[in-house]
Design goal:
Layout lengths: L6 H25 L8 H10 L1 H5 L4 H20 L4 E7 L8 E6 L9 E4 L6 E2 L4 H5 L9 H8 L6 H8 L3 H11 L3 E4 L2 E4 L1 H8 L3
Helix pairs in contact: 1-2, 1-4, 7-8
Protein name: Helix-turn-helix domain-containing protein
Organism: Kitasatospora kifunensis (Streptomyces kifunensis)
Amino acid sequence: MGIPLNGRAVDARREILGTLATWAELVVEGKRLTRPRRTVPALAAFLQCHAHWLAAHPAAREAAAELETLLNSARRTAAAPMARRIPVGRCVVEGCGGGLTAVLGQERNAPASSVECDRDETHRWPPQRWLELCGEERHAPGGPAQNAAAQIPAGLTAAQIAHTWKISTGTVYWLASTHGWQRSRHGREVRYRQQDVLRSLGDR
């Protein structure tokens, strides 16, 4: 599996590079200077060094407006939550043949977590139905349902639980304590065992 890329971030970086290069070229031509390296840090440092000259240029207002728009766009992109997509195996619906992907929203306003089929959009399991994929009662060990469920990331964050069931994170912590949810830590991230969450909230 390759490294997951944030498409919006890639596009934003390309736009930043192109915009900085355009205004750096104006300075290069106007002051007859050597072009800086075509990297964001080098271009930004070059423009900062010649900011007074650019501020006195007739196109200064356009430069300022364009750079401000670029900055605001970059900030929105950086602040936007990114859902993780993790392949988990083949679809458990008999005869489908599609592939399942776990889509995990990282923040309250991110897309809801779910397991989705790439062939049939009706084959979709929100967290409330993930126990169906475990197949403990209805599928033999090693079957496609268990194989898929085994690869779903073990645990849900408080933010994912709050977003999916439309409750506050405070309620999540209270439920975790009251019902004795098992928890695990991944770096700074705490995840609650999904079977415990589903047994407490699956019917809500």
